[in-house]
Each structure stands twice: as structure tokens, then as C-alpha cells.
Amino acid sequence: MNDENLPESSTSGLPAETSDGFSARSAFATTKGMWSRGAGDTSGYGGITRSLQMPGSSEPPFDDEAADAIHGRALEVVPALRGARVLYDRGELTIFVDRAELPAVVKAFRDDAFLRFEICMSVSGVHYPQQTGAELHAVYHLISITHNRRVRLEVTCPDADPHIPSVVATYPMADWHERETWDLFGIQFDGHPALTRILMPDDWEGHPQRKDYPLGGVDVEYKGARVPAPDNRRTYS
């Protein structure tokens, strides 16, 4: 991928904002085929061409009572979120959080009576190699049983310093989710009680769901049948 094909980025690793409060949704890459990296395309959809775009940002109010209430209260109880990038898209609210502020933010989101996000449903990893300085993202999906609301928190860190504070002290059920995100994406959750691999063997090298991880594998044999590794399968013309 050539640098000239990448959009301008802000300090958060997202596209630069325009005057209307939404960031430009310029394409950062064009992919062809199902896998787009020159590997064997066994899907039969080798003719697919797609432009990849990053979502932008939104300015309140969002014309959504629950989202407006969550965002407004969050700014009251966590002043560090003032000026933070926010995205409201398809009825879902995402608040981007500086990694240094994450422990305080999740504690406030859990303990504040108005917010009361008691549960962290999942911690997901995402890898955006084109976002220099913010290549790795950790996404926290919170749910409030009390108020029947959902919110997403997103934290970025650079590939050169892949550290994000653990939220296990606030949300114990995030324990295995953080282990999986470390295992597959390489994000190190500082303060986690036992950050070890959960899917791959302990001596495995690399993190398989990163986009720079080679598409490969091992041949599988079962009852006389042999299935080649993905990078050795046939292609469709």
C-alpha cells in the first residue's frame, strides 16, 4: 500500500474532520477478490472490488434520547472525555477514550447511578495497519441492565507500544476477553492478573488476526482425506 493512498489522520488515528463535524470518509485502500492479498481465492468471488473507508466522527445532539443522555452524563462525570471523538452511526454510540484514562472511565461508567453500565459484554481487537500511531484498537461493549442501554468505548495504541490498561479490576468478566485480544492481536493489557494465550499454544509466535499476519497454516488430514493449507489451495480463473 502506498503512503499517497492513505487519508490524512488526526492524533487519534482517524481521518481528519471536516467543518460539518464529520470526518472525511476517504478510501484508504482498494481491495480486489475475497482475500485481496494475492492468496488463492477459493470463494469464486475473485471479481469483487471494494473501497475501504474508515468511519468519521459525529457532533451531538444525535437525535437519539438515550445516546444524548449517555454522552451528556459521561462528560459530566468524566471531564477527561470533553473533546474526545464520538461516533454515532446506525443507532450505536462509540466514544473514543485515551488509553491513560480508560480505568477511570470504565469505573465511572459502572458506578454512576445514571450510567450504570454493569456489564462489559466483550473486548474486541482490531488491526488497522494504515493508521500510523494507532494501528491497534481495543473495543469495549458495555451494557446497562438497569437502564437497558448500550455504549461502545474504543481505545487505540501504536504498534510500537501496544499497551492498554486492563479493565479486569472493574469488569472481572473481561479477563478471558483481554487474554483472547492479546493472543490474536498482540495488545498487552497492563495489570491483567494472568495475561497468557487462550487459543494458540503458549509457544506460538505472532498474533494470527493481525492483518500483517501471513495467510498460511498446515495441511489437515482426517480419515484419509487431505485439506491443503489456505495458501496452497487452488484458485478460480
From TrEMBL:
Protein name: NADH-quinone oxidoreductase subunit C
Natural source organism: Tessaracoccus rhinocerotis
Record function comment: NDH-1 shuttles electrons from NADH, via FMN and iron-sulfur (Fe-S) centers, to quinones in the respiratory chain. The immediate electron acceptor for the enzyme in this species is believed to be a menaquinone. Couples the redox reaction to proton translocation (for every two electrons transferred, four hydrogen ions are translocated across the cytoplasmic membrane), and thus conserves the redox energy in a proton gradient.
Domain NADH:ubiquinone oxidoreductase 30kDa subunit positions: 97-217
E.C. number(s) listed in UniProt: 7.1.1.-
Topology of this chain in the membrane: Peripheral membrane protein
InterPro entries given in the database record: NADH_DH_suC (IPR010218), NADH_quin_OxRdtase_su_C/D-like (IPR037232), NADH_UbQ_OxRdtase_30kDa_su (IPR001268)
Keyword NAD recorded: yes
Principal cellular location given in the protein's record: membrane
Assigned protein family: Belongs to the complex I 30 kDa subunit family.
Reaction(s) catalysed (UniProt annotation): a quinone + NADH + 5 H(+)(in) = a quinol + NAD(+) + 4 H(+)(out)
UniProt keyword annotation of Cytoplasm present: no
Subunit and partners: NDH-1 is composed of 14 different subunits. Subunits NuoB, C, D, E, F, and G constitute the peripheral sector of the complex.
GO molecular function: NADH dehydrogenase (quinone) (non-electrogenic) activity; NADH dehydrogenase (ubiquinone) activity; quinone binding
Region called Disordered, residue ranges: 1-22, 34-64
Record keywords: Cell membrane, Membrane, NAD, Oxidoreductase, Quinone, Translocase, Transport
Gene Ontology cellular component list: plasma membrane
Source domain of life: Bacteria
Location in the cell: Cell membrane
Cross-referenced Pfam families: Complex1_30kDa
